[in-house]
Design a protein that fits this description.
Layout (H helix, E strand, L loop, with lengths): L16 E5 L7 H8 L5 H9 L3 E3 L15 E5 L14 E5 L3 E6 L16 H9 L5 E2 L8 E7 L2 H8 L7 E10 L10 E8 L6 E4 L5 E11 L2 E8 L6 H8 L27 E9 L6 E5 L10
Parallel strand pairs: 7-13
Antiparallel strand pairs: 1-3, 2-3, 4-5, 5-7, 6-7, 8-12, 8-13, 9-10, 9-11, 11-12, 13-14
Length: about 300
Amino acid sequence: MTGQRLPLPTRDGVGPSCVGLPQGAWPTIAEFLIERFPAITREAWLARMEARDVVDEHGVPVTAQRRYQAPLRVYYYRTLDAEVRIPFDEQVLFQDDQLVVVDKPPFLPVTPTGKYLQESLLVRLKRKLKLDDLVPLHRIDRSTAGLVLFSVRPETRGAYQAMFPERRIDKHYEAVVPWQPGVSSVPGTYRSRLVDDDHFMRVKEEAGEPNSETRIAVEQAAGGHALLRLSPVTGRKHQLRVHCMALGMPIVNDPFYPVLLPPDSDDFDKPLQLLAKSVAFQDPVSGELRRFTSPRSLALPPR
């Protein structure tokens, strides 16, 4: 439904979710939804239908008795019973008719996922800026702080999105890693092949043609740690984190590498020491050179 209005409006910063009805023998749409989403109770679905918060792609309400019909798209609002607030705030650094550039705090996901809905950067911004069509142009990990770019207008979104796969945007990160003087060293460029790990949340390296590349420079080293400047040429999932680990210097406070910590183990006093520090690109719409820098900075731990 690209370019068309969704059958339910954005509400409190949250746009409607969508599920397609596959071929099947469910007697009603309600029975399909109850089976498809077991975490949502029957009573909750029926209450949503009574409130006319479940509709089809044409905007026709789905009632508890409406017979099953495939193929059809059904829209509804995702809700969470209780959500813990992430105790850090984002900062809008730039906004015009095309772009919003935001400095994201650590621990805050860019988009709704899992147990995070209102506590996601996208939903916070939609509420704050009153921009229902806002869409992130790229992602950074929930643990990572720093710059995220958002598209305001659907009409020009594709031009900005194309910058990333076509490598027409320069991105630089900072990271704090362990450092052993006389032992630690980094190559100017590190390449490897990254693939999905056995655990869905992680990736790993394997032998074969490299599909990831990072440029690395040491900015400062003292007291058993170093501050690195990382410039990803490619944009693979967890690329910087895995490359640093492969070089024997996993990023400080990384909850995934080398050891995957249990869920719900966030320590707000120990954020991942990885920062999306700067981006620069030629604006595909205006043609002007744009450069943005996070006001955050990383520092080596005190000796």
